[in-house]
Amino acid sequence: MIVVVTPNPAVDVTYRVAEQRIGETQRVLDVARRPGGKGLNVGRVLDTTGTGTHAVLPLGGAAGRWIAEALDALGLAHTDVAIGGETRTTVTVVDDLAHPTMLGEPGPELGAEEWDAVTAAVTALLPGADALVVSGSLPRATDPGVVARWVAAARHHGVPSVVDCSGDALLAAASAGATVCKPNREELLDATGADDERSGARLLLERGATVVVVSRGSDGIAAHTADRVLDVPAVPGVSGNPTGAGDAATAGLVGALVGALDRALDRALDRATDGGPGSTAVLDDAVLLHALRSAAAHGAAAVLRPVAGEVDPADVARFLHPDHDHADTDRTRTPA
Amino acid sequence: MIVVVTPNPAVDVTYRVAEQRIGETQRVLDVARRPGGKGLNVGRVLDTTGTGTHAVLPLGGAAGRWIAEALDALGLAHTDVAIGGETRTTVTVVDDLAHPTMLGEPGPELGAEEWDAVTAAVTALLPGADALVVSGSLPRATDPGVVARWVAAARHHGVPSVVDCSGDALLAAASAGATVCKPNREELLDATGADDERSGARLLLERGATVVVVSRGSDGIAAHTADRVLDVPAVPGVSGNPTGAGDAATAGLVGALVGALDRALDRALDRATDGGPGSTAVLDDAVLLHALRSAAAHGAAAVLRPVAGEVDPADVARFLHPDHDHADTDRTRTPA
Fold this sequence. Notes:
globular; 15 strands; homodimer; four-stranded mixed β-sheet
């Protein structure tokens, strides 16, 4: 079971209108509501592909209750931490003529006791967990140290952690020894202030991350370790809705790593002197390449779906085992 | 106590953004949520001005629960009829640069049993009621006959009814013998197909309405009976937010009529042969003019408030008792 933390969940509402117009009254032709936030997207994709998850998320108000009921309806296990604020809503307005317009509520601020309750919920689940995933933005005014506490708790329980956050939360996760930091390229450069991807990844590795996986959309995905870079291209010829593709990629990455780690764990525990499954010993090139290919296949499968948080497992399988030989395109480099 | 039915309530959400732009991601700077729908606006204004109300409304889903809790927080009495659908939300996007953009969800459709439950809730409250108000649109695919049933139930219990609906629901209310039909001018012409206000009003009167009150925004408000038209101008020099001004006017009208009817009821019951308080006997010119002035004052007071469903009673009093002599501007005409 994979524990997936969504620090700032949202009710994602999509309104279809005939034509977006500013300053007018518009009849909404179709309404879609779904539980959102990057962690919930990751969890839904993992669940679709047969990997059990348990979501941990702070929820408040009517929007929070709606999310809890929607997760029940989807059959996803979740531990809700009750908060005083109202869970945020995002409204996306779409038509067939213009780009979507997205209106994002600022979301609630959580008190220290509320974050303590989230940490307690995470910690209670870790003893039975195969991995911890933390994904998505933090609510306003949140101490990024909360992410470090979850990563440290995972290390304490010998559970690998994958963190897809941005800004100071990403830096804090690296410093706490996250097994995998998984920003997209823009988030990596933004958080580290680096000018290029390799420099940014090195900064996170030096802080303590075991691997830094960088997704670049149609430019593929890479895994950086202290001494090498593994590169896997995006699945070619796929177009559609990129929203949530990065989250599906995280799900593909985590699912593949957990499978490999399960198999490698017994061997690794024999030789790892510290850090347990955080040791790079278990993350050899074959495992990482497989995980990157799984991430790319899941990301491409998500692009084919109209909404975030969904993949068709048949698409994943098709993209993961195409007719071409991976060796033609995948590269392992040893940076200068 | 005034029973106020809101057939299609809504969560009214207002998002303030820096600048409305189509096709972009916009941070919402400020979120306001309020229970909406014309009937709830009428009820809140009546409550603010000291007239007790009891709201009846179908509510479903998380949005419905939010409205129920918001009404509790406002201290408004309400009977909720549980429905299977999700109560609608309206999103209004505002900035300081352009007109507001309003996105209105279609709202749920109610089944026959759900409407029966609304009718039962209304009927149960009528024995203790001073008036029945039905205000606002009907949900999609609703038989307008439901409004006629509520009006008929009110007549059966000797309770005057005021109906601010549009389209076929307005016609049905008139045919059922509503004491007051209160469309705005556009709604009147639209529902009746008439070319002018007097002709439209006559069509509703001929169907069975006792009085037709037509609001015209800054062009004042009029009461039509079979043989005369009473005209009261809008309060001059008031500008602001017209949203909900018509609902405040309805509240002002109803509050004044109920007070007058209370006083007149005993006398009227002696001479009315049928229709009880629906008889025009109790709605003499003095009562109607007072009610129209109250409506105009409430409407103007609502314009001064930033959101619908609110008036400052001090503004109402100021507009109701200005220094000028009403007789200078109010007119009673006997149409040709």
